[in-house]
Design brief:
Blueprint lengths: L4 H20 L10 H15 L3 E2 L2 E2 L6 H6 L8 H17 L2 H10 L4 H13 L3 H5 L3 H5 L26 H4 L2 H13 L9 H8 L6 H4 L2 H11 L1
Antiparallel strand pairs: 1-2
Helix pairs in contact: 1-4, 1-6, 5-6, 5-10, 6-13
């Protein structure tokens, strides 16, 4: 099983990338404003002038990782093609989250099979359409900003006000995943609990059923991969 892990992880990432890119390409125009306009404008400005500007003015926006990474795409002459490439970059970034999720699970002593299942869950949540668009969420799991669910941030939507840690800590996918899995491992009999019950035992959710709906797909992926 251990020898197959790199290939299985690669299969998860590749499958997620293809699906996310295909779903994102169903939309030919931005759908999340103002995030998409801000990030696209900054990325295009960096590509053209080397400066993070919006319509020639200072952006005053500190989250530059996504615009820097996607800036080369805007060197493509055709705007529509460049937008498609940026969508694909976001899909790849989200898909690669399976790798740290697996490594963290293994570091906590979980079996390769369970670790792969957790990696699959990481790719299944958040929903594909939401995660694939050109926005802060696509590349660095940043705070959702306007319209956020209270102060929930990061990969696991943990709340600083509820004692999970600082915003900087929770914005780090490896740190936030480690917090979740560490607490999960301390729940008595967590292996026999339903996904909903186990997740609720670790961190409360207003929509606990959202975890359960992805379980059949994750189990199918885990079975197919190993």
């Amino acid at each position: 099983m251990k020898q197959r892990v790199p290939y299985l992880l690669a299969a998860l990432v590749a499958t997620s990338f293809v699906i996310r890119t295909a779903m994102a390409w169903l939309r030919s125009v931005p759908a999340l404003f103002p995030d998409e306009y801000i990030y696209s404008s900054i990325g295009r400005s960096i590509a053209e002038s080397g400066r993070p500007l919006i319509r020639g003015g200072s952006a005053h926006f500190p989250a530059l990782l996504q615009p820097i990474v996607t800036a080369p795409a805007w060197l493509i002459g055709d705007v529509d093609t460049a937008f498609r490439v940026v969508q694909a970059i976001g899909a790849l970034a989200m898909s690669l989250s399976a790798v740290p999720a697996y490594l963290i699970a293994r570091r906590l002593g979980l079996s390769p099979r369970i670790s792969l299942a957790l990696a699959a869950f990481t790719l299944l949540v958040p929903d594909l359409l939401y995660a694939s668009f050109v926005s802060a969420e696509s590349l660095a799991y940043p705070h959702q900003g306007v319209g956020a669910d209270h102060d929930s941030v990061g990969l696991f939507q943990q709340r600083p006000s509820q004692g999970w840690g600082t915003v900087a800590e929770l914005m780090d996918p490896e740190h936030s995943a480690g917090l979740f899995l560490d607490r999960l491992a301390k729940v008595p009999g967590w292996e026999s609990l339903s996904v909903t019950a186990a997740a609720q035992a670790v961190q409360r959710s207003a929509y606990p059923g959202a975890y359960q709906r992805h379980q059949p797909v994750a189990e199918q992926l885990a079975a197919a991969l190993g």
